[in-house]
Specification:
By secondary structure, the chain is mainly alpha-helical. It has a domain at 42-137. Helices cover 73% and strands 4% of the residues. The chain has a two-stranded antiparallel sheet with strand order 1-2. Strand 1 and strand 2 form a beta hairpin. Helix 2 (13-34) packs across helix 4 and helix 2 crosses helix 5. The longest helix has 29 residues, at 97-125.
Length: 138
């Protein structure tokens, strides 16, 4: 049994990042999916405000209070957009597993490309990126 543990490889940093992104996409989407309006007739903006408050509180709790506001806003905006998508899609179209898999893949690719671009930008500008939290610090 110990040989099996020795043979298992740890995922690369890129794989760990991709796994984290996949998990965050699914969690945000599912949060939106599970969000239920308080009134039978409601405005989507009310749902978005509630999601924004929820994700801001969660992000600050998990990342700490010392995270720059710009980083909090960027991350929360992305999570709110995903959750809003999760809220809207089942209300306007029939569920389709293949569509959802493809959608999540496209969102993951977009998120990874944004992270890569921000890392490249940070290197050019001499900013430090804390790998454990993927936060750009001025």
């Amino acid at each position: 049994m110990s040989e099996e543990k020795d043979n298992t490889q740890q995922p690369s940093p890129e794989e760990q990042l991709a796994n984290t992104i996949r998990m965050q996409i699914a969690q945000a989407f599912n949060t939106g999916l599970q969000s239920q309006p308080k009134e039978p007739v409601y405005h989507l903006s009310d749902v978005v405000k509630e999601l924004e408050t929820f994700f801001t509180d969660e992000f600050k709790k998990n990342a700490g209070e010392n995270v720059p506001d710009e980083a909090v806003k960027a991350n929360v905006l992305f999570l709110v957009q995903l959750a809003t998508l999760g809220h809207i899609l089942p209300r306007v179209c029939v569920p389709d597993k293949d569509f959802q898999v493809n959608l999540f893949k496209l969102i993951e690719e977009r998120a990874l490309s944004l992270i890569k671009a921000s890392q490249e930008q940070a290197q050019k500008e001499g900013k430090i990126i804390h790998e454990e939290k993927k936060i750009i610090v001025p």
